[in-house]
Structures
1.
Amino acid sequence: MADIDIIKDENIVYKKSKVLTDNVMHYCPGCSHGVVHKLIAEVIEEMGIQDKTIGVSPVGCSVFAYNYLDIDWQEAAHGRAPALATATKRLMPDKYVFTYQGDGDLASIGAAEIIHACNRGENITVIFINNGIYGMTGGQMAPTTLVGMKTATTPYGRDVELNGYPLKMTELVAQLPGTCYVTRQSVHTPATVRKCKKAIRKAFENQDKKIGTSFVEVTSTCNSGWKIPPVEANNWMVDHMFKFYKQGDLKDSEKDNPDDYKKFIE
């Protein structure tokens, strides 16, 4: 019977990454954060960089990310993660530095920080969770809230005349010369999870090439803030969020501008 309990490596179909801790996640059922944490952990483990990675997490639902990923972490003031990541990477250029930010953080109080970090071409990775709402503080309207979308502060839907238009941060940073890789992914199906993991890995690997900032948006759900069940939230995201926030790569210097890319790495 003892032999039955021993599972050989070649027979293992799946196992939890060693970079993930055993702590129970506090995120709401159906939340995308846990899936993205898993992908980051797997990428870090597969690249063998656990002792070389530093995460920077500001205020928001992701503020407790240090409880779930067993790497070095720094806490940043609301919206200031890119500034802290900039200092960290410049002081320790051999480390893999990434920020993990929500839309209420990155696109609102942190909009100036992320724009200037990307424009400078800081050699960091930015992971941007966009669920179109302030999830942690009660479901208020965020800069990324869709037109007509109901929130705690727009109970009748976002009104352009009153609230302005949703902000497409990913399209904005894709225009900046300092960004080398800008993409928008999701994690609502097995196929999109695999694509998102590939994007996150590329964003980390780009730090070795020293070619600028890599920016990965993950279009996500907030079923508790949206007031709909997880499955319906995924469907709503596909039907509404994806129409405005188009999925896929927006910029890849290595592919789009191979001559300029060669100049960078030379």
2.
Amino acid sequence: MPLKPLGLVALLVAPLALQAQDAHNQTFEVASVRPQSGVAGGGSSTGTRFYRPGSTLRQVIQFAYDLSRVRLEGGPEWIGTEFWAIDARSLSPATADEMRVMVKGLLADRFQLKTRVESRELPVFDLRVTRQDGTLGPNATPPNCTRIGARSFESLREAGEIACGPAGTVGYRLDGTSYHRLYGVTMSELSRYLEPITGRVVRDRTGVTGAFDIDLIFAGDVGRLRGAPPAPLPDAVPLPTALAEQLGLRLESATGSVGVLVIESVSRPTPN
């Protein structure tokens, strides 16, 4: 099964929401958009603030429309190569869904973004349980985290709490392993998390309900790390084996109808 290299950017990986949503007319009170020289980590997308100190427009679109890279097509090259610092604030705290709708409005206003949704037949992976009794593997454990809601990550950290969601711990080791720690994710959220790793849409076909803390370790691409020495032969197993042994899951190739967001037009904003 061919795999694409995993970026270190944690995805936001909530349910696909291409259709229009009602945010009760909630909009940002103030918003600043400025070009940046490069990527910058950190940021916030809960409470009263949407803050991205250095992200590509493609990444912001993925957040706003709640989808992975494999579900986004079209647009000029610069949406994936140029970086922007976006700082927008609302008068009252917003949930994650409300924040996404407000960011959609910001993209339409400042970047003149226009999109359409198309249904396409594409190669996909179906995520299924490997064990006959339907149980998961040893690296899927009961969750020890807090659903973030309208609270900020900062408030959770101050309280010593861990936020549930796929934006957990992701990293590479020089032995060639890729380590992924996810907190309180459903099988549907795990499926979407696997999309940028596999380069395909992943559909949840496990039939497993509830949320889990996930540990997943598999052979990664350390050659992409700046300054990294040549990697030795990794002891880590490939992703299909790791899914089976660690989580009791497998990826099954299939073809299916996929909702794809197509960028019709977009333009650079005037910085302010």
3.
Amino acid sequence: MTKQIIAEQLTRIADSLERLAPPTPATPDLNKDTAFVWHADQNRLQSIPNVNYVDISMLHGIDRVKDTLTDNTLRFAKGFPANNALLWGARGMGKSSLVKAAHAHVNKEVGNSLVLVEIHREDIPSLPDLLKILGKTNRNCILFCDDLSFDGEDDTYKSLKTVLEGGLEGRPKNVLFYATSNRRHLMRRDMIENERSTAISPSEAVEEKVSLSDRFGLWLGFHSCSQDEYLEMIRQYIAHYNIPISEKEMHKEAIEWTHTRGARSGRVAWQFIQELAGRTETLLD
């Protein structure tokens, strides 16, 4: 077999492999789109053209934290100083919904100039790479991590501490960090207690872990809602979507719904509305 034939065969093999390989995804334009998801394994951002969010006016029972986060986000979008924010507390009370709703609401005021970038909790170690990309754009970016927490011997939190406040390079001025968590200090209580019992210097060990939440200038607490607040959420949804049901029927069925869930929250209220809308053939547009 001549060298020419071997070369031709290798060329055909290479062409075949190239056709089988998936095309290289296009790099999204940070100066064009307004929402992205970070894929650390590919070291790239994916544009999200249609963000799954609810209008901020539809979030009830969290008025104080809603106003605080919206004001903070608006100041940042306009180029003024603002704080990193930790939204912590009860499940289903609208923490992640509020971040997305505040982003959409503020963008209506600033002409879609604010970018929202979601990073998954397991991709926190890749933050330095992501920040290098975000630092190259002139637009302000909110870096969002949903359900952030740390367990066991996980020391990923050290990377996050450096990014939030510290390190030689620091965080780019056009980047703010928002996170949601069920834990105020982002770590289980037994992790903190274990540090106290096993460390040579317990106070220093605990301080190392607890100080992560101190990097957030805003601590916004979300607490389980009362029955009156729960029912008011449902009334607002019913009025907004014109769902045909009487107050008496709504009250009875809504209370029964919480008994099947064992909790009251914004999420439970919305699940009840979906059940009610489906049963009454009402569209939730």
4.
Amino acid sequence: MTEPSEPLHHESRGSGRPILLIHGFGASTFTWRYLVEDLSKQYRTVAVDLRGFGKSPKPQQGGYAVMDQVRSVRDVIRKLTLNDLTIVGHSYGGLVALVLAMDLADFETVRLHSLVILCGAVYPLTLPRFIQLFQTPVAGHVSLGNISRKAQVRAVLESCVYDQSMVTDELVDQYTRPLEDKGAGTALAKVAAQLALPDFALSEEKKHYQKYNRITEPVQLIWGRHDQVVPLVTAYRLNDDLKDSRLDIIEQCGHIPQEEQPRETLRIMKSFFKRLAGRNSK
């Protein structure tokens, strides 16, 4: 039995049509800082910390299934009355974003404008070693106990980027800090356990990834050419499964485009929004 849902931590900036940003496994709102700085000049950006991450609640008893995350994010959307909304999701957050889009289709009061998926972990895949370490609470705590948090975070970041020189001490510190919060280790273990299921995208006995063609809104896919976490073959499959999507691949980029290639990521997103504006004006 899960604990009662508590509100997610979120950070809102700017004004205009809203853009909701959902981070990936082990990350937080921090990962969107470059995008938010630019996008908030024209849009209202709302970055959320998912349950178990960043400054959001970290319930010890559970509540970390994909649909639990979706319901919590949906509560933020309702609270802030976000409409004509673009949802941006990275990696695990890409899965949450797609399932959220299907969930919102059942609520007439919320109009979805579009989606942007960055290196989305949206199908069952072989889990990278850094997630496997957290599959059980014991493994999660042992891994963090025997190896310094900073050393582990550095190793994870270096495995996720094309250019390892960008993994500076400051970057490692920023990604490490939320992992030192009370309950963070257990929360990571519980989310990792969900991802480790053979069919990790199960909800109410139905596989989410078999229903992506239900999404009718335009979707921009952004992938790093050298993504070793969620291989490029996933991008091609998702592009085929969606009704209205476009795939752009960033060269010399790994699994975290918003960190490694923020300018190119922004260029693609803005071009996407411009195309949609032109489509809607016809």
